[in-house]
Amino acid sequence: MNDALQLKNVSYSYHTKFGETYALYDINLTLPQGSFISVVGPSGCGKSTLLSLIAGTIKPESGSVLIGGKPASESDSQIGYMLQHDHLFEWRSVYGNVILGLEIRKKKTSDNLHHVNALLDQYGLGDFKGSKPSELSGGMRQRAALIRTLALEPDILLLDEPFSALDYQTRLTVSDDIGTIIRQERKTAILVTHDLSEAISMGDTVYVLSKRPGHIKASIPIEFADNITPMERRSAPEFKDYFNTLWRELNENA
Description:
Number of strands: 10
Structural class: alpha/beta
Low-confidence stretches: none
Largest sheet: 6 strands, mixed
């Protein structure tokens, strides 16, 4: 089985009339199918740029991005993207929002709609199909946004600080919900976050980027008992050790 994703010696710079800004340098990264990694690092180190390179919205200046063993431009793998805000349309119902991608891609088949309905029922939104987004809590809105993404059955999920707009208590609950859903659906996922606790509670491995130009400073495998939720990880005795290790990596030579 091919790895879901490989980045080989990837570097990227932004160019303006005022000069060149180095964003990422010599990134090497491999994601097996079904893995969930977290990426942390100081502000401006290129975390979101990394996701843009994987999504194909920008191309590396050097190095290569392989998805499913093929160059990104040739791969037929699907990439799903969750942003900081849910971007649900208030004039559409919850159901209308979650099938929007299927409509745009002309994939509104009976099988795909059945899959959407099953996801809505399974993850607590079955009774809210006709509701407007304004009638949902912040956590329910993010679940709806995730189901909209999952409806297209992506091979890789990119999560760009998807909980940062939520208050702290809601953020804990939603990250627990969404982390559990992603594992149940056996998706390959990459989470970019500034929250070290979030990175540890959700990821199988946490990658630490250096300050700009970002390169991988450390790779920390995360191991907890099988089948415990992100919230349960936070209470595990080893959680504190992982947090302290990440804190030292981020603050070394700061």
